[in-house]
Structure formats: structure tokens, C-alpha cells
Amino acid sequence: MSVHDRPPEEPAPPAAAAPPRSLAEQLRARDDASLAALLQARPDLITPVPTDLTQLATRAGTRASVVRALEHLDRFALQTAEALAVAPDPATYDTLLALLAGDESDPEVTGALPRALATLREQALVWGADDRLRLVRTARELLAPSPQHPSPTGLGPTVAEATAGMSPGRIQEILAAAGLPTTHDAVSAVASLTELFTDRPRMRALLDGAPADSLEVLSRLVWGPPYGQVTADPAPRLRWLLDRGLLLPTAPGTVVLPREVALHLRAGRAHQKTEPLPPAVEPAVTHRPQVVDATAAGQAYTALATVEELLKDWDEGGPAVLRAGGLSVRDLKRTAVALDVPEPIAAFWIELAYAAGLLASDDEADEQYAATPAYDAWLELPAAERWTRLATAWLTATRTPGLVGGRDAKDRTLSALGPGLDRSAAPEVRHRVLALLAALPEGGSAAADSLIARLHWERPVRNPESQTRTDDLRARLARWALSEAELLGITGRGALSTHGRALLATPPEAPLTGAELAAAASRAGRVLAPLLPAPLGHVLLQADLTAVAPGPLERPLADMLGVLADVESKGGATVYRFTPGSVRRALDAGRSASDLHAFLASHSSTPVPQPLTYLIDDVARRHGHLRIGAASAYVRCDDDALLNEILADKRSADLRLRRLAPTVLAAQSAPATLLEGLRAMGFAPAAESAEGDVLIARAHAHRTPPRTAPEPVPEGPPVPDATLLTAAIRAIRAGDLASTAPRKAAAAPAANGSLPRTTSAETLATVQAAVLTGEPLWIGYVNAEGSASQRLIAPIRVEGGFVTAYDHTADEVRTYPLHRITGVAELADDPA
Q1: SS3 (DSSP) at 685
Q2: H helix or E strand, kind and range, residue 476
């Protein structure tokens, strides 16, 4: 039946759309959702916003952008790109599938390839229809095999590439040895040899006649590297391969296995091991969720206590800041001893307090570290809210405590709080580790090796520049994330806690930022609050001069007890010990003996032991009996016998005391030195002011000026939000319309991308006519900074040397000075 005989209700088949000729044309055919996905996956393309789709395509093909995009592919998507790099250009879908699945047609590869190819297309690394797939040129240059940059596939050059410098006579000799008819030119000879190597039955027949030791040589080269060394007089097994082109010389003494031969020996596979599916993260041990939550909550309380103890230890000013920045090794050791933890753990708590904005340097002349004013506000928060501040700071921080003690690129030691600890991948790895734990059954903990294998698949550790494995930072970040999450109480016994799950999104694939993170933290705090022990208002006093706190204490009680007694041991219960020195410390702080008795009686759930009462009374009786002031220093006492005792004591010789009066001794030492010296001799002196009053030695809390927490160092440009994406796509579309809209013949000389040029009179006349007709114009415009651009405008009015028009490029009404318009051109009547 002819077309004229077709029934009227049957429409004619639509004309097939022309295949795209470039990446820009393919981007032009995308819808806004697809462009938004591209810009989210590759945010560097939007900084700054491209003027049109041609510029977007050009930027997507730059080396730096392509390298970054390749680094963010999963293993199978990267293997797909590597296979395309060794396939003919362009390649068909079936050719690509054969390279990945091999002759056996792996069903897992067949099922996973559409997803991988869709990822490469979405990220503008591959363009073209399934019958003409093209890898962008820069990606092909990075991934294609070369002697300087071997391919991860282990393949070498093609026959055509390897014989490029070979003499025509030598190529004809290879044809003859391989049993092929000779040709009249090198091009047809190479094509004939390539056809042989890609024909499976003929290749099997050729190799069936090969010596066994020659096949053994091929087996050593088949999976790469494909290069080998030969002498000037090759052995017979090598000569047989060289004569038939199964090995081709590339340089004096070097041969290579051609790509077509290797693919035949590999049964068509480009990779020795194709990994279409991610390895599963299996639970190593499964605990009851209640046990996990209780363990994590206990560790969360310990984390709060440790940070408080750290900053209390630095309350009067912490260690000095090194000239190069950071904490000295000696101060880190001292802090680790004070916290009773190993040095790497101490570095973690220090960096966590810094990331949360609770710790900073004071920027004074003798710069030292101290708590910030935010620390005092943090102390007043409920325990659950204090924990969420620490947890969210850890999740988003790019500073990496695990690097402390290592070396930087210049072989300098990396110190806590110092420069060089930022790793932009840290937040993403931490979140991904928690997300993988969240995917396990509740209470399930994962083996570290299983989890790291999954991370390796999701982001292969590969440098596209050199194609060699580099320092596996992500694996170290993942191991640190597991241990730090346990220290912080996000996990318990290796499993993600309920409040830890609340910190993640639902589903937890993408990290949360801004308001979403604050909401998640609030949710986690509400889950954790009932699990934390309630503060206690009492202690258990014992006859051995100790007090046991069976849980966390209310802040006023904890603060006072910290002055009156020394911490002897920590854990589930804290043990305090009363000593003469600790009691004297409380008296120095302005407390009287009656105050101390009343305090202990009101906060002890048991009667106050008599030995403790005697200790307080005895220290208080002697406290302040001696008075020390500044002469350079003096000692006065109403009991001259006591002064005689001091003078007679040989230990006072270093203080260089002499009697000024029966009740006064003078010293050449400073008051503080004299005070400590007499206390070391067993006396209980008190310092006094110039007016003769006893000085109350309250600790002076040193604070830095107001500080903000350190900003994370992002990994490249930030991912654009929905508002920016919408505005950027609108601007790109408008700019593309302006650059691709057909011009009338008069503007043809400027159609090569340069700005249109017309005289001032022609410009004014054309714009005035467009105001009357309502037709759009194409203009060239130079702004005040001298930047030139082309724009598509619809003039509204012309007056006072300015044209007011609706700018399709910016999608808004703007006013342009006529003298800055380089020229105008009318659009063709049929813009389509």
C-alpha cells in the first residue's frame, strides 16, 4: 500500500531526530531537571554561571573538571568509562557491553550497565545515542592507555597505533607470516591485520599453531602491563610472536601486546575483574538495641565529662601556641596524662572542642589556648543539647585529628590545633560510614574491612592523572570515623545507636546541612535525653577520707567538690579524696571551716565521718596563722615561737629569712615562692593584701575574645541549592537563546561569535524601530568593567541616551546606555 493509500486515521511516522553532533547539542536537548542534575553532580560547572550551553559544554570538557568528575564515579561507572576509552570512537552499546561482560555475557554486568551509562551521560562524560557513544575527549585522553599513563584495564595500544612508525616492508612481512595476503599499502595492511586479530575463529586457529612457550609469554602480558623487554636477538618463542605481529616493537628493546590480541585472550573483557555491584556490608556482630543505646549513652556522658575536664584544666589559660601554630608535643603529652587517655585520643578531644567553638587561641602577646565565651554558654545547656553540639561539630568538621603526629608534604610534623589538618573528604566519609551502619539491622556492627571495601567501590582510590593507586586516605578516614563515633557515643559496641540514626537523613544517603542538620540534632537530643543519667545532688562520704559520686553530679556540687577534694579515680563512679592540701585550697578560696562542715552535711547521704571533720578543723586551725605579704616578702605571726621554729629549720635556708621584729620575718623571695616554700615545710600560711586582709585565692577563669567555630574547608565548590539552580538554568537557557537565535543576513559577518558592529546612528534607528514593532534584537554590550557580552532584548522605550528593554538573557527588565552597545542585529523571521 502506498502512502496515498494509507488510511486517513493512521498518521505518518515522525521523522527521526537528528543525532547530536556535539556535547553542546546534546545538552541543548536536555530538560531543566536533567541540567539541574548535571550541575548538582558537578558544581564546579556553575562557578561562575556559564553564559550559554556551548560554554557549559566547553567547561565540562576541561581537564580539571573532568578529573574531578572521574574521581567521584563509583567503580563500575569508572570501569565503563575506562572500557569506552579503549573502544572505537564512537562505539555502540553492544561493543561496550562486550568489553565489560565478555564473551560469556555476565548477567550482572548486563543489568548494571544501563545505570552506569546513565550516570556518565548525566555527568556529561559520555554523549551520543546508543549507536554512537562518545567519551568526552579529555576523559579519553586521561583514561586511554599510553606508555606514560598505563590504563587500569592493562591494555596496550591498538595495532594501528603500535605500527604507526613501522616500515611498510616490515608490515608486509608480518602479513605473510600470519598467513594473510600482502597488500599494496600500509593502511590496508594494518586493516587486514586488525581484522585477523578481531576475528575469533581465525585467531583461535592462529594460536592453535603457536608453541607452548610462546603462549606462556602471552599469558604473562595479557592482563598487563602489556610491555616487555627483548634482546637484539630474541629467543625463538619471542621471534614466533614478533613475526606474526602478536607482539609489536614500540622502542628499541621494548615490545607490546596489541590491544586486539589481548582482548581475544581475555575473552573480550576489558577488565580482569568487572565489579558491577557494590559489595554488601554484612553485620559482624548483632547486639540487642537496648544494649547498644545504653552503651552509647554512657559514652556520650563520658564525652561531655572529658571535654569539661579538658577545658577546666585550661581554665586559667592553657598551653602556649607554637610559632607555626598548634600545640607542642610536650603539651599534648601533658594533656593526655591529665585526661588519662592516649595521645591520639587526647588530640581528638582537643580538636573536637576546637571544632565546636569551645576552644581557641587568645591572640594576646604571649598567645595561649583557652576556653571561649561560648564554653560558658555551653555549660548551661542540658546534657543532651551539649552532646548534640559536639556531635554535629564532628559530623561537619573537615579537621582530621587522626593526622596529628604525621608528616605533611614538606616533612613537617602535624600538630594538634595546627595547620594542615583539614581534609575536605572527612565529613562525607563520616556521614557515609554512619549511613552504611544505619543500613544494617538494628544493633548490627560491621567489620571495618567489609565497610572499607564498600567505600572503595563507591569511590575508587585512583588518580586519573597517573592511573596508580595513591595514599588511601578514605580508608584511614573511615577507620578514624568508626573509632571517633564510638568515643563520642554515636555508636555503641560498633553499632549505630538510636540517637545516632536520628542524626542522619531519612533516607540517609546525602549529608544534611543548615536547618536540616539543626532539626536532626534536635531530634537526636530528644532521643538521647532519657538515656543519660540524671545529675545527683549527693555523695557518699567514707571513713577513709574519700567521697564516692555514684553518677554525674549537679554542677554546683561538682564545682565545690572539685575544689575541696582531689579526683582519685573516674569511671561509672567518681572517687574524690580529701587531703590537707585540698582542704587548704577550699579555705584559700574564701570558705570557712563552718562552711565546709555545712556543705558536707547537706550533700552527704551518710553521716560525715569523724576523720574528715577532724581534718577540716585541724587544717582550718593552722590556716592563716602565718601571714605573708610583699616586702619583697615578709612573714608575720603573733606566735614568735613559731617564727623561731621556721628560722631554725634547715629547709628555710633557701628562703633567706631574717627577723625584723619578734613577730615579723623578712625574705628576699617573692611572696608566691615564700608561700609555696613554707607549705612544703608543713606549715599552713595564708597570703595577705597590703591592707593586711587575707587574700582569697579564687581561680581566675581566662577566656578568649568571642570566637566562631572554624569553618570547614569544602571539597571544591559547594553543591548549589534549588534557588541557585533555577536561576542559573534560566540564565543559561536565555544566554543560549541569544547566542543561537538566527540573525538576518545583515548580521551574518558577526555570526561567528563576535559582537555585532553597527554605527551609532544605525543602532539608534534599529532600536527605535524595534520599540514600535515589538521585535526582539540581538545586541553586543560592553559593561563598565570592560566585559563584553551578547544579549537578546525586547526594547520597550528609548530616551535620554538609554534603552529600556526586557533582557531575555537575564530574564528581567534592564536599562542600557546606548553608547555601550557595540551594535544591533535583527533576528530572522523564523527563529526555529
Answers
A1: coil
A2: helix 473-488
Top pLDDT among 578 and 696 is at: 578
**How distant is the alpha carbon of residue 595 from its chain centre?**
54
Cβ-contact 585, 579 below 8 angstroms: no
Are 498 and 487 in contact, with CB atoms under 8 Å apart?
A: no
With H, G, I as helix, E, B as strand and everything else as coil, classify residue 39.
helix
Q: Is residue 778 exposed (0-12), middle (13-18) or buried (19+ Cβ within 10 Å)? A: buried
Which of the four pLDDT bands, split at 50, 70 and 90, describes residue 700?
A: low
Q: In what order do the strands lie in the sheet with 821-826?
A: 812-817, 802-807, 788-799, 777-782, 821-826
The grid coordinates of residue 125 equal 562524560
Instruction: State the pTM of this model.
Output: 0.77
Strand partners, 540: 548
- Which residues are within 8 A (CB) of 324 and not within 5 positions of it... i.e. 6 or more apart? 412, 415, 418, 419
- What's the CA gap between 767 and 774, in Å, rounded? 10
Query: In angstroms, what CA-CA distances link 300 with 339, 386, 529, 817?
Result: 16, 10, 11, 64
- In the numeric block, the cell 579526683 is attached to 567
User: Could you give the residue ranges of the DSSP H alpha helices within 623-778?
Assistant: 640-648, 671-680, 722-740, 760-773
C-alpha cell at 359: 576552644
pLDDT by residue (tens digit) across 36-47?
999 999 999 988
Residue 167 identity: S
Maximum alpha-carbon separation in the chain = 138
Q: Say if residues 806 and 816 touch (Cβ distance below 8 Å).
A: no
626, 640 Cβ separation under 8 angstroms: no
Q: Which amino acid is at 230?
A: V
- What is the spatial distance between Cα 776 and Cα 774, in angstroms, rounded to a whole number? 7
Q: Of the candidates 65, 165, 76, 190, which has an alpha carbon nearest to the alpha carbon of residue 123? A: 65
